Amino acid sequence: MLANNETGVLQPVEEIGRIAADTGVFFHIDAVQGAGKVTIDVRRIGCHLFSISAHKMHGPKGVGAMFVRRGTPIEPLLVGGSHERRQRAGTENVAGIVGLAKAAELAMHSLDDGTIYRLAQMRDRLEAGILQLSGTGVNGVAKGKSVPRAANTSNIWFNQVEGEALVIALDLKGVSVSGGSACHSGATEPQPRPFGNGSRQSPRPRQPPLQSAQNRHRRRRDHVLQIVPEAVERLRALSPIEAGTLG
């Protein structure tokens, strides 16, 4: 995994690539969450396989791409035709492929023109504003310092706040967030997360944290900074711990 899908923490893929090369194992990177947010060089990483998805770069859903290093042995999952050099039977999704190519082109441009850097700055300011609340923290830190992360992702925990209740409260105010990844939709317990670069999860309550994918609009960020503290304080006031009724 190039970037953790819930925290955005970048994994040490180059180090893993060196270990894979030394031990003679094949190395595949799931770069769906990181593609378009960080500069990628498969030759420097040394991976054998590298997969991305269009929808994480504002492209169409249902189409992706995979880099396969020359000489890497792979077997098709779909057989019956000679498409894609007999690696995947079935008619190609031309419209989806074109959409992916355009999305990748725009994503590469955003890396070159500083857009991703500015997005990271907006994320940091959003987190700093929310962390003014007591009993909050960001998942994806090492010894109190932030580690390299994808610019568009925040994962914040709140003491004495039930994750699902906060998601609903913010949704009613027009703020779209998640209590976890789409892969675990409906789950009420926190998911285990591996962290690279020496990072570890912050101590946090048992309820799932709040996950947010950032956009490029400052006005929306300022709106979130107004709505989130109000929602958190309101829910904390209803908490049995705060009310003294627990136990």
Features:
alpha+beta; 3-stranded antiparallel β-sheet; 8 strands; 12% strand; elongated
Rg value = 20 Å
Order of helices and strands: HEHEEHHHEEEEHEHH
Sheet/helix structural class: alpha+beta
Q: Strand percentage, roughly?
A: 5-15%
Estimate the helix proportion, in percent: 25-40%
Could you walk me through the main structural features you see in this protein, from its secondary elements to its overall organization?
By secondary structure, the chain is an alpha+beta fold. Helix content is 36%, strand content 12%. The protein has eight helices and eight strands; from the N terminus they run H-E-H-E-E-H-H-H-E-E-E-E-H-E-H-H. It has helices at residues 13-23, 42-45, 83-86, 94-112, 115-130, 163-171, 218-238, 240-243, and strands at 28-30, 49-53, 64-68, 136-138, 141-142, 145-146, 153-158, 210-213. The strands form three sheets. Strands 1-2-3 form a three-stranded mixed β-sheet. Helix 2 links the parallel strand 1 (28-30) and strand 2. The longest helix has 21 residues, at 218-238. The N and C termini lie far apart (42 Å).
